[in-house]
Amino acid sequence: CTNLVISCSCGKDKANVMNKNNILPPHAIRKLYCPECSKSVDFDASTMIQDNGWIIEYNLPLIEATFIRLNVNEIEITPETIFDNGYCSWNGLTPKELDEGRKQRAEIVKLAKVDMKAYLEKLKNWGNQRMEELKKQGWRKAQRGAY
């Protein structure tokens, strides 16, 4: 899957998004709203999904047409199923997962040069601890145990 970096509606933030098997085109997302710009959005559950303050507005007519053309018919086409099945969702557990995860892993790797045993232990526990932290923060994919 290709990582897509999409700017939010107000231009203050960006999110890493991926489309499962690149089935959907980048413009499957009509608009993206960060926690700041989502405050002024009239949420429409028929075209949008909300995740911890972020809102993705899908281009459902485009998605439906693409699924019909490619004979993808195993799911009901709703914002929830599109997001939860990875057809168009965060690249990782959150919109910033790639960047945050890289930074955290880089810190853990530094430990390998100093204390290999501590490095291996930290690495082993890091993924589980991160998942629990993201669950507590309310991220949809973490709460569902999805990657």
Describe this structure in words.
With 147 residues, the chain is of the alpha+beta class. The chain has two domains: 3-90, no CATH class; 97-143. The chain is built from five helices and six strands, in the order βββββααβααα. The protein has helices at residues 60-69, 79-84, 97-112, 116-137, 140-143; strands at residues 3-7, 14-18, 29-33, 48-51, 54-58, 89-90. The strands form two sheets. It has a three-stranded antiparallel sheet. A three-stranded antiparallel sheet has the order 3-5-4. β4 and β5 (54-58) form a beta hairpin. α3 packs antiparallel against α4. The longest helix has 22 residues, at 116-137. It starts with a strand and ends with a helix.
The gross shape turns out to be elongated
Q: What kind of sheet is the major sheet?
A: 3 strands, antiparallel
Order of helices and strands: EEEEEHHEHHH
Q: Please list the strands of the largest sheet in the order they lie side by side.
A: 1-2-6
Strand content: 15-25%
Helix-strand makeup class: alpha+beta
Oligomer: single chain
Write down the domain tally: 2
User: What low-confidence regions span 5 or more consecutive residues with pLDDT below 50?
Assistant: none
Q: How many distinct helices?
A: 5
Backbone CA Rg: 17 Å
How far is the first residue's CA from the last residue's CA? Answer: 13 Å
Structure summary, number of beta strands: 6
Average pLDDT reading: 93
Helix amount: 25-40%
